[in-house]
Amino acid sequence: MADKSSDPLALWQKMMGEMEKGYNAFANQAMSSPEFSKAMNQASGATAGAQKQFAELMEKYLLNMNLPSRAQMIGVAERLQNIETQLNEIKATLQQMNAGASSGSVGVVRPPRTKRPPAPPSAAPPSGEKK
Amino acid sequence: MNAPAGLDIASIPERIQSEVQRAIQRSIKGVEYFQTSGPTLGSTPKDIIHSRGTMNLYHYRPLADEIYRIPVLIVMATTNRGYILDMVPGQSFIEFLLKRGYDVYMMDWTPPRPEEKSLSMESYVLDFIPDCVRHVQQDSGEADISVIGYCFGGVLSLLYGSIFNDGPMKNLICFTTPVDFRELKLFHNFADRRYFDVDRLVDSVGNVPPEMILSSFEMLRPASRVTSQVQLWENIWNDEYVKSYRMFDRWATDTLPLAGEYFRAITKDLMWDNKLFNDTMTVGGRKAQLADIKVPILHAVAEHDHIVPYDAAKHLITKVGSEDKEEVMLKGGHVSLVAGPNAIKRLWPKLDSWLGGRSI
Questions:
Q1: For chain B, which end, N or C, has fewer CB atoms within 10 Å of the first or last residue's CB respectively?
Q2: What is the CATH number of the domain that holds B303?
Q3: CB distance from B221 to chain A under 8 Å?
């Protein structure tokens, strides 16, 4: 069987790994400079400003057209999701109450809190406090 | 012409056949990849016992006949979803804890709504965590609680533990938790106070968009996105590889926005002034010094963590005031420390052996 030094697939994978490491190291070094930080933040600052202006303009446009904006639609969707969550909680509570009533007990039965860790192989006991 | 040293001529036809079969499988599976969704994640049975806006508190249904007295509350990092700790059956940290007899709760996060942009560090440390702790106490009927914090969830847990140092936190476990923020070198450079106008950003966008968080993580290893897709194509015939790729890729790209005021505080107090490391951190006017943490603490760090390098995490154990404290360095990266085959054989058993004796 061929060893890894002559396996073309293994060589390809090794080369990819080395290229990834090399490029990451090179990019990290370049991104560590103050010049990079300055350029990146100038670009992202301009983008954030433009995005905000565009969003405000669009909001006004939609308002004039008597249409809901994306943010308003998301707001409605989130409120619906909250209502669904609360309905599910109410449903779960009712189911628990029904189960409790039919079994004659109230609430969900949980396992006892009596578990102890398995004894270590040596004689030394764990240092945890006991109640 | 001679064959290169180590090349077995006889194996060449067999090798060609194997590669042809893989190429055919790649074509078939490649089509399947786009036609199917990934595995269902976070499916361990649970109940949402408390929910407030961006915050959800889950209680996982016990899987053991007998459980430890002290419940465990996991505080997830605010940038990512909690299902990294509950991938699929057999690869779920939560399932592991439940089967080992722990009573598990998790604080998980959903994207903060636009009106939640005013959530601050105080909201998380002085409100959300204490509120969830109270719910865990009520639900479990136990006064004591063990807290596990992952990444920035660890920072929040440290801040909570240092302020509420008279209880009810009984044990603290941190996974890859930064303390010295100067050592997050690239993040520190991205947020250079001379060029990064955090006030302008937060005032412009409200909540910091997830694309910005994701791209700052991806910039730490810019080539890895491309090479991981090349590797996926090479291994697309391998169902297990594809399943694992989809799980981790989905989680990594499922980044959450950050509440604006909270992001402002992280940038100013931690990235710029390094207050946690310098012992000058305050939250809502209350001192938050690591030396005030006295409970037993375990800090698990990853040998090849590119997000929280060891230099950023190593001071945690030396700075806390606990007598019972331990740092453990395990092979792996920031994510493979807590999830995947590496975590199953390294971190999970270590955590169980440390926490079991302290949970009675």
A1: N
A2: 3.40.50.1820
A3: yes
